[in-house]
Amino acid sequence: MDMDRFMGAALDEAEIGLGEGGIPIGSVLVHGDRIIGRGHNRRVQRASAVLHAEMDALENAGRQPAALYRESTLYTTLSPCAMCSGAIVLYGIPRVVIGENQTFMGEEDWLRGHGVKIEVLQLQACVDLMRAFIKAHPALWNEDIGC
Predict the structure, then answer these.
(1) Is 54 considered catalytic here?
(2) How would residue 144 be classed by pLDDT, with cut points 50, 70 and 90?
(3) Listing from the earlier edge strand, what are the strands of the sheet with 72-76?
(4) What's the pTM?
(5) Given this model, what pLDDT does residue 145 score?
(6) Of 54, 71, 108, 119, which residue is the catalytic one?
(7) Helix/strand/coil (H, E, C) string of the chain?
(8) What CA dihedral angle connects 141, 130, 87 and 3, to 10 degrees?
């Protein structure tokens, strides 16, 4: 798998979300060497309580056989929250590649405890994007993470 290409696609999704006035987090779901679902945080754009980037990527992948999820990797620009981590475990996604976890530490230990392989890249582009957003929109960020 081309990790750079797939994380680049997730980062592109984050930039799209920011351009739409949303929270800049992006995600892609990859099966084999193909992106089958892509998404970005659309809570603001859709007035949604649950449309985080990972959930959007899963939704955009459409209904898939359970075996497909068990052979897939989820790439996300930010460490997954409890809700998104629950979906990862529910669908049996065995591997998650995370752009960064410095601005937000999600449920990585919980995911590992459920057998999910976690890789954190600590990409400066992901860190810089989130830090700039959090500084500019602290109330919106706190709403997104449930503060």
Answers:
(1) yes
(2) confident
(3) 34-40, 26-31, 72-76, 95-98, 117-120
(4) 0.95
(5) 77
(6) 54
(7) CCHHHHHHHHHHHHHHHHHCCCCCCEEEEEECCEEEEEEECCHHHHCCCCCCHHHHHHHHHCCCCHHHHCCEEEEECCCCCHHHHHHHHHCCCCEEEECCCCCCCCCHHHHHHCCCEEEECCCHHHHHHHHHHHHHCHHHHHHHCCC
(8) 170
